[in-house]
Amino acid sequence: VMRIRSMSDWILWEVASLFENIGTVQDGINTIARPRAVTDRSDAGALAVPRGEISFQDIRFHYGPEGGVTDSRVIEGLSLDIKPGEKVGLVGRSGAGKSTLVNLLLRFYDLEGGRIEIDGQDITQVTQESLRRQIGMVSQDASLLHRSIRENVRYGRPDAGDDAVRDALKRAQALDFVEELRDTKGRQGLEAHAGERGVKLSGGQRQRIAIARVLLKDAPILVLDEATSALDSEVEAAIQEQLYALMEHKTVLAIAHRLSTIAVLDRLVVLDEGRIVETGTHAELLRRGGLYAELWKRQSGGFLGVEDDGEAGQAP
Length: 316
Ligand code: ATP
Description:
Elements: H1 7-13, H2 16-27, E1 54-61, E2 75-82, E3 87-91, H3 98-105, E4 113-118, E5 121-122, H4 128-133, E6 135-138, H5 149-154, H6 162-171, H7 175-180, H8 203-217, E7 221-225, H9 233-247, E8 251-255, E9 267-272, E10 275-280, H10 282-288, H11 291-301
The chain binds adenosine-5'-triphosphate.
């Protein structure tokens, strides 16, 4: 569990849950990667995002050697242009490189080749703080600060008042349970502290607080990594609606294993072994009969429905 002690800690914290995912993937073989030090240039300015265009240009990257067992390239000369306001879903088998692409966009690691630009600005030329401030993120396993619920939500927009915090919690279907919270020191509601010495929250509750944070933050770029995976279907439907509303006018990069949750997006990008193998809409990719069609068929066919929630087969 990551603890927040300094300014740079909190900057990293936004992507901490993502980092923990990497840890989980690698835990079994004990090769948790330490990120290479990513540093701001001395003359780094603030990223400005007037439009929200993202451009991955021939990027190359691999984890290691300090990262672990393999030296093989994870991302092999990948190029992808995402238009302002476009909603793109990343699809692919486990290990295809979806989370890596998101890690790189957040500049959690530096590239070995190529560049990533947001509205024409190379992300290595701007401060990490300004980069991450412009990107709202919800990931599979949302971790919270060991602080009050208020601080956890307001982290997305430090100057927000309680009305705005409550509104965001409400839209994230979290206000009802938050108001019932009482931690071990008797602090209640927004005052209650999350974590070890506070209240223990379920994965779904943590995810809803993370969603409230993103709703409040209202950043121009959204990264959703299985944003609603921990929620039961009724809550998920309600939140999905809020997320779709939030996505309007924003550039979105969404990862989902359950293809039904991203099938509606403007464009799907199918990754395999760090390369883009197909792109198109859900319908186009089904017609194409390639990897996406195969993955879709598997999820909707039922016989391989272990990770399937039973809804994946229905057309969205
Ligand atoms: P999943 O659907 O399982 O989340 P993914 O498509 O997001 O997979 P990535 O997590 O990007 O895939 O992983 C791409 C490759 O990089 C895999 O081979 C993975 O084992 C490796 N990898 C990911 N994170 C690390 C790390 N921190 N250190 C070393 N290797 C890593």
